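ERR on first pass: missing label on line 2. Operator R.T. fixed the label and resubmitted. Corrected input:
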Amino acid sequence: MGASARWRALGTSVVVIATQPHELTDAAARVREVLDQVDLACSRFRDDSELCAVNAAGGSRVTVSRLFLRATRCALRAARLTDGDIDPTIGSSLRAAGYDRDFAKLRAGGPVRFRRAGGWQRIELDDARSTVRVPAGIELDYGATAKALAADVAAASAAEGLAGGVLVSLGGDIATAGAPPPDGWAVRVTDDHSSASADAGQTIALRSGGLATSSTTVRRWRRGEFELHHILDPHTGAPVEGSWRTVSVAAACCVDANIASTAAIVRGAQAPEWLEELGLPARLVALDGTVTLAAGWPAPELEPR
Amino acid sequence: MSPRAPRWVSASPKEIATRRAVMARDAGLRRISSVTRWLAVGVIGLSGALALVASNAFHGRTVSNASASTPATIAPVTPSSGGLSPAAVTPTVTPSAPVVVSGGS
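pass 2 clean. output:
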């Protein structure tokens, strides 16, 4: 199925697949360019990023790039559509919980505090002046949306003007653009995107849009007596202890899929009904491995646990 | 018809003094009126200049009134502000070998 390129960026693995092998080099170059721009705009761990500049502005307005404006709009939309189950002001909560540097450099131990999100309604975005302001003491983190947005933008950019289709995966958040392979993109859905493709899960054919998986089984660390993971409930600032360990969602784009999969983890038992109402095909894996399917997600002949 | 003789010729010294006083008063009033006009023009010009200086020295500040349920966006969040959208084609089961893995990261 075409040709692929793999590397690391945005703190995770990148996979680019082009259905036309001779178009891979161009596609991968465009993806690299987009990821560099997104990293410079939205990284919480780069002192020179726009996000860090906004966080450090002490409540002043900061003039930002069009890309950062777009990422901010995307994060605000996620918050609005999930009633705050996804909140871009979760940055201070993550810092309080100990996730204060790139995950690969995270230290064990140290104090842990749970601090609720600052409140996404307090973000001020001025499109006309290209400025963003957050009150002093509130820290932005676009981790729940920026990677998916990067996948969508990168896939669209990579496929522009090419004859074939392109798939971009950023840590398992997948966006597609252009004509898919005849049988669709075969994607293994499982707990951890870095696991072997034979691990427990399901293989599906994706023909359009995006696919995202959120899981509490990855990015875990220990602080004192607590074992933590990166999906925090914005309402409490504590790691979610809900019904699901992993949720995969297919949607029109990777951003929508990722918003739904992350919010489903936070929502817990109400998530399947919510996903049914939205018509978003989803696969939800409970803490004990039991699988629940919603909104037309295809049933496997035998669902492994 | 003989030309009419100027009246001052026949005016008494007292009348002449009175007329001179009136002429002097009228000239003074004209000067005062002129000064007043120039003062008015000057004040208006100076006010405009001061307003220009002040507007450049102290920039305006937009006050956002954040509500409890909506973000304080000054411009609309659209066009990507609609609801979450399903894919055009629902995924299906496939026997093919996977080309990529979707999982937590």
